[in-house]
Amino acid sequence: MTTLRSNTEHADRLPVTRYAVMLFLLTAALTTAVALTLVRNAHRSQWQQNMTALSGGARVSASSFGTLRSTLRVQASQLATSLELQSAVVTRNEATLQRIAASRHARIALPGHYVGLLVPRPRIATTATIRSGARVLATITVALPLGKDVLTLLREATALPAHGSLMLLYNGRVVAGGPIGARPRIEAGRTVLGGVKFAAQKSPLALPGAAVLAVEPASAIDALSERYRRLVYLAAAVTLALAGGLARRLARPIAQVVGEVAHLSKQVQTDALTGLANRRGLTDRLEREIARALETGTSVSLVIADIDDFKLINDSYGHQTGDNIIRATGAALAGAVRELDLAARYGGEEFAVVLPGSRLGDARRSAERMRQAVMTIESPTPAGELAHVTMSFGVAEFPMYASLDSLVAAADAALYQAKRSGKNQVATAAVHAQSGESGSTGVPVEIASLA
User: Fold this and answer.
1) Fold topology of 279-449
2) pLDDT at 222
């Protein structure tokens, strides 16, 4: 009798133990997957943020280089118009010409010979002439070496991440800011110089063969997410320890809670019909991108789009066809944008797309690609016909509109104008627009593309 009771109890414990083990293994797998996903996403996001900042820094440096060339042209013109130089040219005063050429790093070309030497290549050079009527008396060339001094001026005018720096390249090789003569190479998506891996963004300069490279050590970017990674792994370890200790007693309740939490977490920011982000997900992402743009001095654009005459589609073909068109529209929008962009269902037949790092012109072109993608949709109807749709788009840019509310209002006003102007087109909100109706919010808009 005692043996029978013992065998029965043992048989009852086996399913519980098996379920507890399965629950622990499932919890371990889920916890590990979530931890790795969180760490990977944080790492990717950190890289995207820093690459955006480096891209902006490279563009600013290139713009500053253009200003530097303009300043050099002014200096050459001022030198050519100086009375001392003109007098020395007319009188062929070699001593004065030599002194002026040496003090200004200039070369003065006179009929038959040169005075002074230019700095070696690579260099930035500009010329000015001294004339007497139509006759050229002298040509003055002023030059700066494309090197450390130029790089210092560009760095002073450029905002970069904490560990970022600039390098000058000429014909693909480093001339300042890094290993001189080294040629950057790409390995697994990273730029390698002198055995060190960097995140890098390049921008050409207004000088043939010259470019500026904004770089940041890969190790510095990885270190920014290191603390978060440690916290995630610590949380995962604690979770697994608790799961191991409580698996037998709380196996069933834990499984139910984990399942419910996972389900609800997905539903909170996802639209059930299209699988895109919903309005809450859109708002959260837009807030983050605006904060990031403020921190890095970059831009973020917002596109709001609306299916044209959607009520007529529902009335003509039924709500099932309408739902199919909304799903197809969401897929078309998501397929026409970059991976780092976010397409969302704003509500009803209205959609929105967040474009991090995009200026107004880039966002306008993206919206035009979306508009053309939507025009290819063909949705079967109960009558056997194929329903086609078009969309109108409104585009606005931060920091041109300096808050989330004003950005949304500007994009919405541009969408309203696109609707009023004939639909199936893209309109942009522009603070400095000189003409164009403003819609209901008073935001100036420009029609950027017509069907």
Assistant:
1) Alpha-Beta Plaits (3.30.70)
2) 83
